[in-house]
Amino acid sequence: MGIALQEVGFTYLPGTPMARAALEGVDLSLREGETVCLMGASGSGKTTLLRIAAGISSPARGRVLLDGSRADDTASGRRRLRAAVGLLFQSPQKQLFAESVEKDVAFGPRNLGLRGRELSQRVREAMEAVGLDPQSHSHRSPFTLSDGEMRRAALAGVLAMRPRFLLLDEPTVGLDAPGRRLFRELIQGLKRRGIGVLMASHDWEEVEALADRVEVICEGRIVHSGDARSAAGDPGMLHEAGLASPPTLRVLALLRGKGLDLPTRASSPREAAALIADALGGEAQ
Ligand SMILES: Nc1ncnc2c1ncn2[C@@H]1O[C@H](COP(=O)(O)OP(=O)(O)OP(=O)(O)O)[C@@H](O)[C@H]1O
Ligand SMILES: [Mg+2]
Q1: Is 48 in the pocket of ligand 1 (CB under 6 A)?
Q2: Which of 1, 111, 138, 198 has its CA 20 to 30 A from that of 31?
């Protein structure tokens, strides 16, 4: 059970001299309980892909399936897709609109018919899940929040809908280290509850910690699909796609260049430290 994009293509401003194919021949699936990271340079098509997978835009070419049946070619199909999928926008300013954080987070579940205690409990849970203290933040205008808090409030609004699939467009940009850690734990918790997560990200630490699969997109096409290790271990592909290698691997490469006998891969900074200490004849702490 899941979402599947099949041979999806999308063109902005079709039929005009400014027409631009943003996606071409994209095959991508997301199952329940799976975390997939979408990596790609600026302008590669990540946001366009997420909008199509969420049922907000329709593909110009190809199909979107939900649980095996087509969900992009009728209004009822797109409604079914939007009910199953939550999308966190790249800019939280575009997602937030109400006069208070509480009203904003409550908007979706209220539309689902929730009222009273059930509604306030749903809002409180969602705010706590993203690390926003309901006591101090509920009554503030979302537009007085810091960038990081705004991002959390927008995510709380998406989570309050309890989607089966969560699509996140560069969700940790602007978060500090504790915010990123909390976010990582949140995603791991959602995964345990069977929620499928598709996340656009540039952050290798996050990708290596969370991804069951990495999809690399370059100029609207998927150019690599595999686990984080296989993506990180293909510097040629990453370079072509305009992406940096993980910092850990860059350090290993620099030290190899200085004559140390080191492998090209390490699965974590800790493993890299142990390998470097070994190569220097010492011991990693
Ligand atoms: N509304 C639009 N009208 C015309 N072209 C657009 C529009 N939105 C996006 N594009 C173009 O489509 C391509 C893909 O854009 P998209 O926003 O999906 O990329 P992205 O990978 O999300 O980039 P970023 O990392 O900067 O968010 C880009 O070339 C972009 O200029
Ligand atoms: Mg984008």
Answers
A1: yes
A2: 111
Among protein residues, the one whose CA lies closest to atom 26 of ligand 1: 42
Cβ of 126 below 6 Å from ligand 1: no
pLDDT in tens, 113-143: 999 999 999 999 999 999 999 999 999 999 9
Listed in sequence order, the residues at least 6 apart from 9 whose beta carbon sits closer than 8 Å to its beta carbon are: 21, 23, 24, 25, 26, 59, 60, 61, 62, 220
Rg of the chain over Cα atoms, rounded to whole angstroms, equals 21
Atom of ligand 1 nearest to the CA of 23: 14
Ligand 1 geometric centre to CA of 43 (Å): 5
Instruction: Determine the Cα–Cα distance for residues 232 and 271; give it in Å rounded to an integer.
Output: 15
**Rounded Cα distance, 89 and 85, in Å:** 13
pLDDT in tens, 203-234: 998 999 999 999 999 999 999 999 998 999 89
Compute, in angstroms, the gap from residue 44 CA to the centroid of ligand 1: 7
- Alpha-carbon span 225 to 202, nearest angstrom: 16
Q: Which amino acid, 3? A: I
